[in-house]
Amino acid sequence: MKLGQQEIVAAALQLVDEQGLDRLNMRALAARLGVQASALYWHVGDKAELTSLMAASFYARALAAAPVEAGWRAWLLGFGHAFRGALLAHRDSARLCAIAKPIGDAQGSAERLAAPLVRAGLSRHAALSALASVISLALGWAVYEQSNALHDHLAEMVGFDESFTAGLQAMVVGFPDPAPADRA
Amino acid sequence: MKLGQQEIVAAALQLVDEQGLDRLNMRALAARLGVQASALYWHVGDKAELTSLMAASFYARALAAAPVEAGWRAWLLGFGHAFRGALLAHRDSARLCAIAKPIGDAQGSAERLAAPLVRAGLSRHAALSALASVISLALGWAVYEQSNALHDHLAEMVGFDESFTAGLQAMVVGFPDPAPADRA
DNA sequence: ACCTGAACACCGTTCAAGT
DNA sequence: ACCTGAACACCGTTCAAGT
Q1: Is A135 in Cβ contact with B137 (below 8 Å)?
Q2: Cα A38 to the center of its chain, rounded Å
Q3: Nearest nucleic acid nucleotide to A48, CA to C1' distance
Q4: If you count Cβ atoms within 10 Å of the first and of the last residue's Cβ in chain B, which end, N or C, has fewer?
Q5: Is the pLDDT reported for residue B8 higher than 50?
Q6: Nearest residue of B to residue A99 by CA position?
Q7: For every residue of chain A, which 3-state class applies, written as one string?
Q8: Which residues make up the interface with nucleic strand D when CB must lie under 7 A?
Q9: Neighbours of B34 (CB within 10 A)
Q10: Distance (Å, whole) CA B109 – CA B112
Q11: What is the rounded distance in angstroms from the CA atom of residue B147 to the CA atom of residue A136?
């Protein structure tokens, strides 16, 4: 099996899932791939770039899992749950996203994410704004939810899933309908 | 000036404000305090504990800046803005909160934060749930907002303040009134 | 009680050298 | 083009020793 960015990112995610984010280091990752640590730098350039790639995979998976065509409210709800799902599928994913410095064309990715909302009738500004709020909400929840020690105490107290859903629902319902002048 | 947790945390926040989170290390921090790195371990125990203390200072400041008595919606809005303000007052604060492992009595702090909401008529569960959503939203926004490279691109595209306010407003308005059976 | 000085283990990264 | 081996700088942490 040849070594490439794909395999490296996959192995890194696997390593984090098993050992946690603070056990992710270039030597351990290289060992898992049967290679020397310095070999990774041919494919990745930087540990920061590696974490950015890992974070990007969450967004990509969320977008893929989001509803295809729907009203903008339904799409926002769907995407919110999809992004949350993508995060919860991996250990320490939220911390990973928080650490990750934005990669490549952040501008472009944002537009691509917002495109379904624009197609559904929101202005570019309203779409980006609402999307950022939904992403922020999901990311923030995941941060606290994955904070290991917190998890035990708060799981029973609050019920992460229902509470997140309640917050998301409230927010999306609360977003105003696009003003007539704001239509495409 | 004697060395204590207070001064260490303050100096650490100052250092991060000036140099950024990834330049925060025990040696630089010690040097700033005119002391040896190993001396810090008498007062702090751990770098993780230090970051937790730093993160805790944000929550404390937000609680202090929140409205004293108000309806639960108004209090939530006020606290949301206060927490956001506390985060934006320091560089890399959101990443700091994401990294920080919960300190001491997370249970107790959560209750203390939620107390004003309970006094305003929400059930304990509804209060914790709503509060967590507001905190998550503010934290999530701050993560993206402080992501240096992102800041430049997105600042004009979205308008962080208005968009955060819109999301917060929508969410708080969208929270249902407490059911009669759910009253204190 | 509080701090110094020196050390240890670990980690990101580089680079000449190999194939 | 892709990887090894060895090295460098840096950092968290410990601990005996000082005062």
Answers
A1: no
A2: 28
A3: C12
A4: N
A5: yes
A6: B95
A7: CCCCHHHHHHHHHHHHHHHCHHHCCHHHHHHHCCCCHHHHHHHCCCHHHHHHHHHHHHHHHHHHHCCCCCCHHHHHHHHHHHHHHHHHCCCCHHHHHHHCCCCCCHHHHHHHHHHHHHHCCCCHHHHHHHHHHHHHHHHHHHHHHHCHHHHHHHHHHHCHHHHHHHHHHHHHHHCCCCCHHHCC
A8: A 2-3, 30, 34-39, 42-43; B 23-28, 37-38, 41, 46-48
A9: 9
A10: 5
A11: 13
Average pLDDT of span B115-140: 95
What's the pLDDT at B99?
A: 96
What tokens appear for A30 in the block? 């290289």
Residue A160 corresponds to which amino acid?
Answer: F
Integer angstrom CA distances of residue B141 from A115, A130, A132, A143, B79? 20, 11, 7, 13, 15
CA pair distance A129, A70, nearest whole angstrom = 18
For B65-87, how does the pLDDT look when each residue is reduced to its tens digit (9 = 90+)? 999 878 999 999 999 999 999 99
Whole-angstrom distance, CA of residue B178 vs CA of residue B139: 26
Q: Do A97 and A88 form a contact (C-beta atoms < 8 A)? A: no
Distance of CA A140 to the CA centre of its chain: 11
